[in-house]
Design brief:
331 residues; alpha/beta; Nucleotidyltransferase, domain 5; 5-stranded mixed β-sheet; 11 helices; 19% strand
Length: 331
């Protein structure tokens, strides 16, 4: 079986072809970061228009890379949400048209669930496990007891962690995407320079809040000069606060669920310091932590095809009138 995976959830257009064992036959990701950089963040209408321009081209690219034809594709998996609704619709409409024309089945998948399950592109993971998905649009903890079966145990009440990084970078005029730039600058700084707050750390629930931390940073920056002499230290302190909250809350969720296996995915999971803190804490507390490789942390079609393979195995196909959605469906 050959599976076509399509993701247009935000500003990356990505398609991939996988076989029935989740081996990648072809994989292309086209980033729009340079296009949106001048605005300091993603402009939804520009993103969706660019997807329209690119999706046919990238589809032909993955066929050529895999040395396959359209007739070789047996299943299409596509992001149906959550995401920027205009962007999601581009990929979903393409997938529906392809399946209608070819007569093959369609599976609409949850983009956040796909990030959590992206680890299966590289490792076979035993169930149950707790997954943190952390990105520009989402910061959420899921508990999986089996493939295609999860529940939400914690989520952000306001800004996502990646959104906080981007807004801080925009405030300082550093550029976009903010997370990557802040990580690079923070690498040279001291994380103990500023005692930024750790929001909701004492809360018994596993929810997050990053709006207050973002405000604390901006307030500090307005009261103190942040320039070349101290910017690395200040950003390292901010980054450390974010990492501390993400790791502590995820381990709390795992302990409350009596699960000692943690999976981490999403674009912010590419952050080197976050990966270090997770692995340090795992060693201290004798937990198993698995983090997707940076290539599979960002939005990608391979994780969509991979998740579709699990749903296909259970016979959970989608109707051609499946609807796109912008927000995470809590269950």
């Amino acid at each position: 079986m050959v599976i076509l995976g399509i993701d247009t959830s935000c500003d990356d257009t990505s398609l991939a072809l996988l076989d029935e064992n989740r081996n990648i036959l072809a994989h292309v990701i086209s980033s729009q970061a340079d296009l949106h950089g001048r605005f300091g963040g993603v402009v939804p209408e520009i993103a969706s228009r660019k997807h329209v321009e690119l999706i046919d081209v990238i589809y032909n690219d993955v066929l050529r890379e895999a040395e396959l034809n359209a007739d070789d594709i047996d299943l299409v998996g596509v992001t149906s949400g959550p995401g920027l609704i205009g962007s999601v619709l581009v990929g979903l409409c393409f997938a529906k048209g392809f399946c209608l024309a070819s007569g093959i089945p369609l599976i609409g998948v949850n983009h956040v669930e796909a990030h959590a399950m992206s680890i299966f592109l590289e490792h076979e993971v035993e169930f149950p496990f707790v997954a943190l998905v952390v990105s520009g649009g989402h910061t959420i903890i899921l508990s999986f007891d089996a493939p295609c079966s999860f529940r939400v145990v914690g989520s952000t009440l306001d800004d996502a962690a990646g959104e906080a990084f981007d807004k801080i970078a925009k405030f300082l005029g550093l550029g976009y995407p903010g997370g990557r730039i802040i990580e690079e600058l923070a690498r040279k700084g001291s994380p103990d320079h500023v005692a930024f707050p750790r929001p909701m750390m004492d809360d018994v629930r596993c929810n997050f809040s990053f709006s207050g931390l973002k405000t604390a940073f901006i307030t500090y920056a307005k009261k103190h000069t942040v320039d070349g002499s101290n910017i690395s230290d200040v950003l390292a302190s901010f980054q450390e606060a974010v990492c501390d909250v993400l790791v502590s809350k995820t381990f709390k969720a795992a302990r409350q669920s009596n699960i000692k296996r943690i999976v981490v995915g999403g674009g912010v999971a590419s952050n080197g310091r976050l990966r270090e803190v997770f692995l340090e804490r795992a060693k201290e507390e004798d937990f198993e932590v698995m983090i997707s490789s940076p290539l599979y942390c960002t939005d990608n079609g391979a994780m969509i095809a991979s998740l579709a393979s699990f749903y296909a195995a259970s016979g959970a196909y989608s109707a051609l009138d499946i609807k796109a959605y912008s927000r995470m469906v809590m269950k």
